[in-house]
Amino acid sequence: MPGLPRPAQDTTALVTGASAGIGAEIARVLAARGLGAALVARRRERLEELAGELSGQHGIRAEVLPCDLTDPDARRELPDRVKELGLDVDLLVNNAGFGTAGPFHKSDVDQEVQQVRILIEAVVDLTGRFVPAMVERRRGAILNVASTAGFSPLPNMAGYSAAKSWARSFSASLHVELKRYDIAVTALCPGPVETEFFDVAGETPIEHVVPKFAWVDVEQVARDAVSALERNKVEVIPGRAMSAIVGASKMTPREVALPLLGRFFR
Ligand SMILES: NC(=O)c1ccc[n+]([C@@H]2O[C@H](COP(=O)([O-])OP(=O)(O)OC[C@H]3O[C@@H](n4cnc5c(N)ncnc54)[C@H](OP(=O)(O)O)[C@@H]3O)[C@@H](O)[C@H]2O)c1
Asked: Residue 177: CA atoms inside 13 Å, Cβ hemisphere, count?
């Protein structure tokens, strides 16, 4: 039965975007379960600080792999960097990302393209590089961080919502494809979470539209993510309120929902 890989000396959980927010918290939950971590992001000092915390508190092996995941050459080197450490990636957490907001015609096109690189290109690339070995070993797991923004087109967050919709779709297909190789694949779909995401994105419609009671804390997001992966759920939405909002939106016809979203997502 696919699920969370067992901890072992020579395996690791590679977590992208581990220098902050959801990625750092997922690494903490995995370390508490005894899983070693290979921490990836651009800010080396943040990764080193977390690696020290994880190995100190949980006695696991934590390695840091600073990398700009929008750079295809840097990504290509990651599997060899992991191999040089004598590790196999048994669990891949595709979490790194940022979001853009605002009318698309006023957007910074370079930022929009970078967003596609980190939220789509890097996920395809890393999954493609690490999954074949998991299939060969018939053991492994993948956690893809999507978003509730991926359940519907969001005017004024066009690029971000489309990328997260892609993540849900990619993840669900792999969930089915990889089950027979005992590989678990889960898409984590959080609603808003208080992290550095909103500092990077600047003002987004999300803060104005989603009521505060529906926001979920980062610790719960990470716990729910790992527990869903353990049960090989196809996807998980942390928090009852956000699940109910998504449930209601699924029952609303697109021709009704889109103009409403256009009015609220400004
Ligand atoms: N917060 C929310 O409300 C929310 C809701 C749903 C989904 N999500 C998704 O959750 C994921 C994590 O977001 P978060 O909320 O934890 O935001 P965050 O606190 O801003 O963390 C983002 C992480 O991504 C890394 N990152 C960004 N660009 C990178 C690059 N070019 N190369 C390598 N790493 C990069 C950052 O590290 P460096 O800056 O050190 O590189 C950081 O570790 C994202 O995919 C986001 O879309 C967030």
From this structure: 11
The pLDDT of 165-189, averaged and rounded, is 98
CATH annotation of 11-264: 3.40.50.720
Angle at which helices 218-230 and 21-32 pack, to 10 degrees? 50
Instruction: Give me 214's structure tokens.
Output: 């529906």
Backbone angles phi and psi of 11, in degrees to 5 = -125, 160
Residue-wise pLDDT tens digits, 192-225: 999 999 999 988 888 888 999 999 999 999 999 9
Question: pTM for this one?
Answer: 0.98
Q: Which two structure tokens, joined as six digits, stand for 70?
A: 């929008």
Query: Per-domain residue ranges for the chain?
Result: 11-264
> Probe ligand 1: pick from 16, 42, 67, max atoms within 8 Å of CB?
42
What ranges in 117-182 are assigned the alpha helix state H? 122-137, 158-179
Active site residues: 160
- Residue burial 180-213, b: 16+ Cβ < 10 Å; e: rest: eebbbbbbbbbbbbebebbeebeebbbeeebeee
Probe ligand 1: pick from 69, 197, 246, max atoms within 8 Å of CB? 197
And the tokens for 185? 């694949």
- Tell me 5's DSSP state: P
